[in-house]
Design brief:
The protein is of the alpha+beta class and about 160 residues long. Helices cover about 20% and strands about 40% of the residues. The chain has four helices and eleven strands; from the N terminus they run E-E-H-E-E-E-E-H-H-E-E-E-E-H-E. Strands 1, 2, 9, 10 and 11 form a five-stranded mixed β-sheet that branches. The protein has a four-stranded antiparallel β-sheet with strand order 5-6-8-7. The chain has a two-stranded antiparallel ribbon with strand order 3-4. The chain is globular.
Length: about 160
């Protein structure tokens, strides 16, 4: 599940070119990986607020930062009960059953883990870590710039995940 080539720490030009660096994870909604398929399913069940804006509950998807030496990892998790409660296709259940249980909370399963070598420390405000931005796209992109171009063209979305 470790795919370090799809994790970046950079300002998000489409949102704020002069902004602070953010942690971005690429998510291929066409992936055959069980964890990424589960993320796609959970993104599809977001709660719509204003038109075109969907909200995720931390129970649905959340991220956790982990640091080991010079490596920063992001772990995306969900409730194991959520995956079996609302399956769109029962054939996925066997694949989802193989997802690893989160070592810090046995009620959650790990969907995605990415890490990179960096000295970046996620910002905290009022005791909350800065969120992780998940770039949802179809297919593999050659670069982060291509993902931003897809976002600008409406071919990719960005989900904001609460982080701990």
């Amino acid at each position: 599940m470790d795919d370090s080539a799809r994790m970046w720490i950079t300002p998000v030009p489409a949102l704020d070119p002069d902004g602070e660096p953010a942690v971005l994870l690429g998510h291929d909604c066409a992936s055959r990986d069980a964890g990424e398929r589960a993320i796609s399913r959970l993104l599809d069940r977001g709660h719509e607020g204003e038109e075109g804006v969907f909200y995720l509950l931390p129970f649905d998807l959340s991220a956790r930062y982990e640091r080991t030496g010079d490596r920063l990892a992001v772990v995306v998790t969900t409730s194991g009960q959520l995956l079996v409660k609302e399956p769109a296709d029962r054939s996925d259940l066997a694949d989802f059953a193989d997802l690893p249980v989160d070592g810090t909370d046995e009620d959650r399963v790990v969907l995605l883990r990415r890490e990179i070598v960096t000295d970046f420390v996620p910002a905290e405000q009022d005791g909350e870590k800065q969120p992780v931005l998940l770039i949802d796209h179809d297919g593999s992109a050659a670069s982060l710039a291509e993902l931003f171009d897809r976002f600008e063209a409406g071919e990719a979305g960005i989900a904001v995940l609460n982080a701990e």
